[in-house]
Each structure stands twice: as C-alpha cells, then as structure tokens.
C-alpha cells in the first residue's frame, strides 16, 4: 500500500489535523521557506505528534552538524535532503547517523541517473522543482533507479488517486496541495489520506 507524507507543518493545529488523519509521515522543513521551523519549534510540534506517525526533517544544503543535532535530539526519524548534496556529503552523513535518508531529485533540472544510483540513500523523492511549488511534472520521466521513491509536486485530493494508480510510488508527499490560503487545511488533509488509504 502506498504511504503518505504531509509536509510543511508549522502550527500546533497542523499536528492535530495530521493526528486525526493518520498519515505515515509528517514533514518539518528546516530550510529557508515560508514553512520553515527551527529545531525548538519542531521539538514542540514533534511532542504533539501521534506515536504512529514518523517525523521527517527536510534540509537544503544544511551543515551536517545541524542535521545530526536534530536527529540526536529525537526530533526527526528520517532525513530528507533537498539541495545539491553530493556523494561525499551523503557518505559522511551516513557515517554519523542510521536514520533513513531520502534524496530529492528535481525533475526541472538535468540529472545523471548513473550518479544518482551511486548515492548511499534509502529512497529518492521526485519533485517538479525545489519543493512546495504546487506543480506536477510528467510522471513518465521518472527514472528507474532501483530504489523505492516518494512522489511529490502538485499532489492533492484531486489527483492523488491517479498518481498512485499510474506511478505506484512507495509514498506520496503533499504540502501545498493540502493547504488553503497558505495554511494547512483539515478537510484536505483528511480527504488526501482517505483517498490514498482507499487505493
């Protein structure tokens, strides 16, 4: 069954919505973004998160020490890398943490599938751009890299069923697609999780 991640949580009510809906993952963005939280804010939100939901930290070219500190504080269970992190960066991070690693791939920029295959990560995430863009991409362009992947980019209650059926990702990742006027929307989160669970 396809898993679901709700990303970009910033408010306590966002956590309440997610706890009610029961997705598999909740995402906290530590990179510069309108959804950015710092470690202390994320710690408070994490403590409110229901036990069965795993927390994912989203980073963009962050110092390794920052990621490791947040991991060691028990704030996140997974690490998602959304920048230009290369083989050396990921190898060093892997040496210092056993958290599952997700590497995001922007489908709007050229990439070398051979280089991606060499990265010591557990999952890939395919997105239209830098994350939170609210736009989809041509799913037929997803490369076969031999690892499970998250599908992101412009996903919401209206196209989730199509995405799951056509792409069969390990997980879908939603942010702006479950927002109204820039904030998380309880009804959209509930609907999104229901639609994935029903597939």
From TrEMBL:
Entry-linked InterPro entries: Aldolase_TIM, PRAI_dom, RibuloseP-bd_barrel, TrpF_fam
Alphabetical UniProt keywords: Amino-acid biosynthesis, Aromatic amino acid biosynthesis, Isomerase, Tryptophan biosynthesis
Record field: catalytic activity: N-(5-phospho-beta-D-ribosyl)anthranilate = 1-(2-carboxyphenylamino)-1-deoxy-D-ribulose 5-phosphate
This protein's pathway: Amino-acid biosynthesis; L-tryptophan biosynthesis; L-tryptophan from chorismate: step 3/5
E.C. designation(s): 5.3.1.24
Domain N-(5'phosphoribosyl) anthranilate isomerase (PRAI): 4-193
Signal peptide: none
CDD domains: PRAI
HAMAP family on file: PRAI
GO molecular function (one): isomerase activity
Superkingdom of the source species: Bacteria
Sequence similarity: Belongs to the TrpF family.
SUPFAM superfamilies, A to Z: Ribulose-phoshate binding barrel
High-level lineage: Bacteria, Bacillati, Bacillota, Clostridia, Peptostreptococcales
Species of origin: Anaerovorax odorimutans
Pfam families to which the protein is assigned, alphabetical: PRAI (PF00697)
Descriptive protein name: N-(5'-phosphoribosyl)anthranilate isomerase
